[in-house]
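Reopening this ticket.

The earlier resolution said the output was attached, but the attachment link was broken on my side. Pasting everything inline this time so it's all in one place.
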Amino acid sequence: MNQVERRRMIRAELQRSGTVVVRDLAETLDVTMVTIRGDLEYLERRGLALRSHGGAVLPETDRHMRLIDDTIHENYEKKNAIARKAVELVKAGSTIILDAGSTVTILARQLTDMDITVVTNSVPVIGELVSDDRVNLIAMGGAVRKQVNAMVGELTRIACSTIRVDLLFMGASGFSPANGVTTVNLFEAETKKAMIKSAGYVCLLVDSTKLGSDKFARVCDWNAVDEIITNPIPGAVAQELEERGVKVTVAEVGG
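Inline output:
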């Protein structure tokens, strides 16, 4: 069996079961574990697998994920209100990371003509700021995940590890007091974790429709988040987050 066939079989097994084990693959395919690890590294670089301890998992768990071009128009007024609140945290000279996501993209539109440095993995954010002479724009490389139009994976994580910024504006697919911040894709989760490590202050931008919508890939617990900007949420939820040390900022539509 040649290399191409072997990797095709590994991909097929990932699609079938969602996870593979290095030792099992080595025995089944009659090659060394070193060879299998090389195959998994190859697949990870192409966004087809996410390595885990002793094996790999399928990075995409939601095959019907909506594209950002569609989601940016959903609950637009709520997201725009969140973005207006977020702008208040940005000062001249700030260095910030803008994560991928529809709400963060709307925020980027409001950061024009500011003397700031923006680091981002988001293709739409780059499009919003690339022509602005006052914004110092730094794009992080990586494998482009087309569903969210953003760079993710090992190269993006390496880029994050080389910088330190004042502020991270992070998006998410779901959040809840019990399970923290979540997203649908393991690659995205790992990228967000790397961003958190690079930031002095972490601000989660998430509209209230995502409350209680816990997704597959866990990003972080609340101890990693300094502030959440969202639309009105139940008082008990806001109180619980405040008790966990998270500042809750409510963005009212029209406010």
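Reporter confirms the inline version is readable. The longest strand covers residues 199-205. The chain is about 40% helix and 25% strand.
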